[in-house]
Design a protein that fits this description.
This protein is mainly alpha-helical and 520 residues long. The chain contains 23 helices and no strands. It has helices spanning 3-35, 37-51, 60-70, 73-76, 85-105, 131-142, 144-177, 185-210, 216-237, 242-259, 262-269, 275-280, 287-295, 302-317, 320-333, 340-384, 389-398, 400-416, 422-433, 444-451, 466-481, 484-500, 506-513. Helix 1 packs across helix 21 (466-481), helix 2 (37-51) crosses helix 3 (60-70) and helix 9 runs antiparallel to helix 10. It starts with a helix and ends in a 7-residue tail after the last helix.
Amino acid sequence: MNLPFILDVAIGLIFIYLILSLLASEIQELIATVFQWRAEHLKKSIEILLAGNVENAEEAHIIELANRIYDNPLVKNINQEAKGLFVTIPRKITWAIGSIYRRLTSSKIGKDKNQTTFGDSKHTGPSYISADIFATTLIETLQISTLVQRLTESRLKKFKEERLAEIEEIIVRLQEQTVNDYRFTDFFSNLYKEFSELRSEFEKTCWNFHQQKASLKTSLNRMAESLDRYIDYFQTEIPDDELSHKALRKLQFFKQDNFDNIEQAILLGGLQPNINEVVQTIDKDSKIYQEIKAAIQDEDSEAYQGIQEAFQTIETKLPSSVVKNFDVLAKRAQARVKTTEEGMNALRLEIENTFNSSMERAGGVYKRNAKGVALIIGLAIAITANADALHMVKRLSKDSALRDTITNSAGELALRKGTVDLEQLRQEADQTLTNISLPVGWDDTNLQQQIRWTRQSKKTFPYLKILVLIPGWIISGIAIAMGAPFWFDLLSKIVNVRNAGSRPSNETRSVADNGEEGGI
């Protein structure tokens, strides 16, 4: 027994396992598609991420929140479904089989029997969701941006009322000091009209912010411009009096302290929530959440209607684990943010990083589960096809014609392919198999060599001799579970080793066997 002979037997065995592995991968892909294993595993992984652990992932609140994420248009658009009669009918059959499978295997705790797995109206879900889409969808589902907007609105309104009250106090103080001076009668009458105009402009600015027509900085700049016009009028119309000039200086100092530095005004007024306050907007026990609710007490108002769903989600459906997870993410991002916009972006980035880490672990779990399924399929194929590893080695060792045919075909298959493309590899393998009869199957030839029995014999089937085949089936089952890419790569390497010392052609070997000499 020499090295070329051993390599030929190895190539033949590897080629057989490559063919069977391609069949196994087809079966596993079909099963995974029908039962939607990838999509279901992704959904379950998201539920575990939201819950923080496996034990709480079956809670009704977690499942409902995950379904709402899947109902978001960003996620729905990922899973595009083909249209047409010939596509729809098989898809509906697949949905029916998948639904029956999930009802039989899924826990009913916290689940409505009429509720679909992937949201409220989907029979199927995506097998992949990018981190940025998940982060954006989660924030939109919890309406965090809306809650932050409402919190900022309430603080801006409070800022407006406090500043108008301070301005009015300066005017009232001056009026009290000049109550007996007739020169101020018309002045105060016109001044209060201007103050009413100032109040209207401040309220219009707040309304524009509510309608998201202006940013917080723009709104404060507009208030500063309105106050400048009011001070200019005050300065132009005031009587020449020491008390009035003193009141003017107070107004000028007031404007300087509150509006000259907008960033400082935002910071001192607490107008822009920091990232910790952003997270507290979804914590029903926090002061920030109560502040938002107190600011929107009118249930008929537009502001309340726009945020009512968020209140219901937070108070009745939002799991505490989600709030805790957000709190942890906020603490990670706190050191590198200064504004609310930066905080939201940092929070979104932390959600993306956490999602990616979670999906890496989920991917590892799925691969391990897929390996287990592949092993079961491999054993099933080995038994069904009677792929006895020990018998195949014996046949390849003794049958030189079979060995040469398989070796040559395997060599052509390996050398034609530079990279593993399973679809094209299947087509190549199908073409190759038309000229090869593999040493597998329950035909009389194999059964005669394995257990000394054929269908033509009058003897009963020797069931006990089947025990002899079990070790070979187990070996083949494990080998098939290794997967087609593994066997293709191994086949390419061994073919390269064999070709490094190329075998002589059949004609040359025949001449050598007959003792003939060749020459020039």
